[in-house]
Predict the structure.
Amino acid sequence: MSNFEIRINDKIIGNNHSPFIICELSGNHNGSIDRCINLLKMAKKTGCDAIKLQTYTPDTLTINCERKDFQIDSGLWKGNSLYQLYKEAHTPYEWHAKLFEVAKNLKITIFSTPFDKSAVDLLEELETPAYKIASFEITDLPLIRYVASKRKPMILSTGLANFEEIKAAVDTAKNN
């Protein structure tokens, strides 16, 4: 095994280093920035190394459509459309600056999973130290190319990908 290392803020990640623990803060805020800020504070108390958001709007993920293909037919969101789900669960772009400020004051790393170029642009304005690519997006090579062009650490989630898709994503990141 090679001795690969990356740095996200003051934390070195790689062989011979302790795990990099990330708390996920997505739709858990239930539409309240105050709850979101409280979740940041609670995450800090866990001793985690970082907090990760998801940066998207419902319009950047799907269309507002009532066709069957866009409806959720099981689980907690049964009877809703994908658009309704993403509208409820997204972390508004307007909150991001405040969340990054709170995390900085708490002295904890914050970064995000962007789902399109506008999300990357917002995160760049906020000086994100890293990016995560969701496994649903591992085949979005233009997004990976754009994120890689920012020359910051990138974590690729591979849970939904096959070997060829992972290789294409890694090659795209390395080449850009």
Residues 33-46 form the longest helix (14 residues). The mean pLDDT is 94. The chain is about 40% helix and 15% strand.
